[in-house]
Specification:
It is built from three helices and eight strands; from the N terminus they run βαββββαβαββ. By secondary structure, it is of the alpha+beta class. It has one domain. An eight-stranded antiparallel beta sheet has the order 2-3-4-5-1-6-8-7, with helices on one face. Strand 3 and strand 4 form a beta hairpin. Helix 2 packs across helix 3.
């Protein structure tokens, strides 16, 4: 089964950038200017929520957020809908859109986002269960999807243990997260 909900997070080079207010305005500008492909609906400020979604740009196909979900500031692109013929294609499309959104944020904000060490979370636990055989399949598909976009030196994939994910510490039911 191919997961529908896939989140890619690119981390900020400047880890002190935790203020969400500039991103609320930036995301409103993205809607007005139709800066990103897809249907973008609204912007929500969750700056008051500790380790929350921060500034959230709500879309029909995906959401974009400046968040601290795992304790580190970064830009998250979360695919919510879409049909792909394969797991590798779904991952590649999600990575492409995340990188495009990152470039748009960098161009408008001057902020730098890392292309190395990004995380990919397969939120659909039913379609991407935390089982050794399935995790290996996900890892191989992500490596193949990432290589043409990030190059072979960035395409090594490691699983992030649930112990390493701040929000799901030690929970075997946690969504599978891989790091490129």
């Amino acid at each position: 089964m191919i997961p529908q909900r896939i989140r890619v997070k690119l981390y900020a080079e400047d880890t002190s950038q935790t203020d969400v207010e500039p991103f609320v305005a930036l995301f409103h500008g993205f809607i007005r200017e139709a800066r990103l492909p897809g249907l973008w609906i609204d912007v929500v400020d969750y700056g008051h929520v500790r380790r929350g979604p921060g500034a959230l740009l709500v879309g029909h196909e995906a959401d974009l957020s400046w968040d601290l979900l795992d304790g580190r500031p970064g830009l998250s692109y979360t695919r919510k809908r879409g049909e792909a013929p394969s797991l590798e294609q779904a991952l590649r499309e999600t990575l492409e859109h995340a990188l495009e959104a990152a470039a748009a944020v960098e161009a408008r904000s001057g902020l730098r986002l890392q292309r190395q060490g990004l995380s990919v979370t397969l939120i659909d636990r039913l379609r991407a269960p935390r089982e050794p055989g399935r995790i290996e399949q996900l890892r191989l598909a992500l490596g193949a999807a990432a290589e043409p976009l990030l190059g072979s030196r960035h395409a090594s994939v490691d699983e992030v243990s649930p112990d390493d994910v701040a929000t799901d510490r030690g929970d075997a039911r946690a969504a599978v997260t891989l790091r490129l």
